[in-house]
Amino acid sequence: MEKSMIVDALEKCEFFDGLNRADIQRIAGICRFKPYAAGETIFEQGDSGENLYVILDGLVFLERSLDLGSRKGRITIESLGKGRVLGCWSTLLNETHVMMSTATCREATGILVLKGSELRGIMTENVAFGFNIMEKFCHILLERIQAAYGAMEKI
Hints:
globular, 4-stranded antiparallel sheet, Jelly Rolls
């Protein structure tokens, strides 16, 4: 995928809304495109994580396996489509992380993959940019926590 196409996709992603074009271009420089087939897993609950993912097209379900003694199963936390972000946030803190959910493609899905440590490098070079990104991550984490609690209430 050409860098100009990646820049265009990032500019349309709500997570990167408000960033200037130079910052978007720097982020595009650390992205790689990866296609996934329907049913394919992006990451599994329990995996070690280091990447962030931007959905270009398609549909991804975030699911968590639960074991409540006599009740075991899998709950859908959230379904994510075009322009949504998922992955391992703790890499931005320079820490190892275990994935707390599984991300599965429900249809053919195009993903931009960013290594968290590389994004962290850009963030530490430009504190205002870094603050903006961390603020956006906080909003996503709030959404995911609310979605997880909502899903657990259905158990």
